[in-house]
Amino acid sequence: MSVSLSTVHVLVDDPDAALGFYRDILGLTVRDDVAHGGFRWITLVPANQPEIKIVLSQPHAGRSQEDGDAIAALLAKGELGSVFLRSDDLDGTFARIATAPGVEVLEEPANRFWGARDAAVRDPAGNLVRIEQA
């Protein structure tokens, strides 16, 4: 038996701002951009792992108003999701990210006690994004 990662969902309040971050700053490729019922789902893939999809969607998409409101409140507080990525050039990637619109720098690149070298930011929606040196 073999199990592998196929899709990660990241909730965002502003699909255009998120697209600017994940596509334009991080360099992911848009595979699908679907609008339906006033909401939008954007599927992106890393060039070196096209089988792994990151889907950006909005808190109210496919949910009740009450559930969407609760999720949106958690998202606004930065308490919802996290994404862990790798880069073959952490310092170069961080330099691009640190100046991107809507990004909050949490930790600059540093060696961690657990052996990794990484950095942490919040994307324009407030999701934690950690990037590790590959």
Structural class: alpha/beta
Number of strands: 8
Low-pLDDT stretches are none
The overall pLDDT average reads: 94
Shape: globular
Alpha-carbon Rg, integer: 15 Å
Helix share bin: 10-25%
Main sheet: strands, sense, barrel: 4 strands, mixed
Order of helices and strands: EHEEEHEHEEE
Please list the strands of the largest sheet in the order they lie side by side. 1-4-3-2
Binned strand content: 35-45%
Number of helices: 3
Taking the alpha carbons of the first and last residues, their distance comes to 27 Å
Brief synopsis:
The protein has 134 residues and is α/β, with parallel strands linked by helices.
Task: Give the helix/strand layout.
Elements lengths: L6 E5 L3 H11 L3 E8 L2 E7 L7 E5 L7 H12 L5 E6 L2 H9 L5 E8 L5 E6 L5 E6 L1
Parallel strand pairs: 1-4, 5-8
Antiparallel strand pairs: 2-3, 3-4, 6-7, 7-8
Report on the architecture of this protein.
- This protein is an alpha/beta fold.
- It contains three helices and eight strands, in the order E-H-E-E-E-H-E-H-E-E-E.
- The strands form two sheets. A four-stranded mixed beta sheet has the order 1-4-3-2, covered by helices on one side.
- A hairpin with a 7-residue loop joins strand 3 and strand 4.
- The model has no long low-confidence stretch (mean pLDDT 94).
